[in-house]
Write a structure and sequence with these properties.
The chain contains one helix and ten strands; from the N terminus they run αββββββββββ. It is mainly beta.
């Protein structure tokens, strides 16, 4: 009888733990949920001709020139693990400025490995050509509860406007997301 009772307790505890894991790992990326995120980017060069189409947070100071940016992205899960996203941002290049936009899709493989593809562009004061990038991003989502995740990852931006620049840009990113 003790073995049967112990087996039942272990089974119930196991089912409870598995259910909690499912909610923690998959519930945030279910169809009908919303996503709001802010990213930081490291790398990618600086200055006006670095990755100047930015929808994240950044601060760089090189040789007395300060570059800062602020932005956010939002998305809606159209199906489990697949969100359609849009973002906006503002960057100041020591007096010159740009407004950025981003449109794309983010898919969570196994509800915890985010892979994203997007189109990012900007309108920059004082230039005749504006940048346009195809972004490819991947990482890992660490869920800190029902509504928050931290998503470190890597990103590569391929220039689609050779008149602006023909160089690709590689970045390491840390994203912070709210899921509701």
């Amino acid at each position: 009888m003790k073995k049967l009772l112990l087996t039942a307790i272990v089974a119930v505890f196991g089912l409870f733990f598995a259910s909690a894991q499912e909610v923690a790992n998959g519930g945030q990326t279910s169809k009908g949920k919303w996503l709001i995120e802010a990213n930081t980017g490291f790398g990618g060069g600086g200055g006006l001709y670095g990755h100047s189409a930015n929808t994240g947070f950044g601060l760089t100071s090189i040789d007395g020139e300060t570059i800062w940016s602020i932005g956010a992205e939002g998305g809606y899960f159209v199906m489990d693990d697949l969100a359609i996203k849009a973002g906006i941002g503002y960057t100041d290049f020591d007096g010159d400025s740009s407004f950025s936009y981003k449109l794309g899709a983010k898919y969570y493989v196994s509800s915890m490995i985010p892979v994203q593809i997007d189109l990012t562009g900007a309108s920059i004061d004082g230039t005749t050509e504006d940048p346009l990038w195809l972004g490819l991003q991947g990482g890992y989502a660490i869920f800190l509860g029902q509504n928050v995740s931290v998503e470190p990852g890597i990103r590569y931006n391929v220039s689609l406007n050779e008149d602006f620049t023909d160089e690709g840009i590689f970045e390491f990113r840390v994203g912070f997301a709210l899921h509701f």
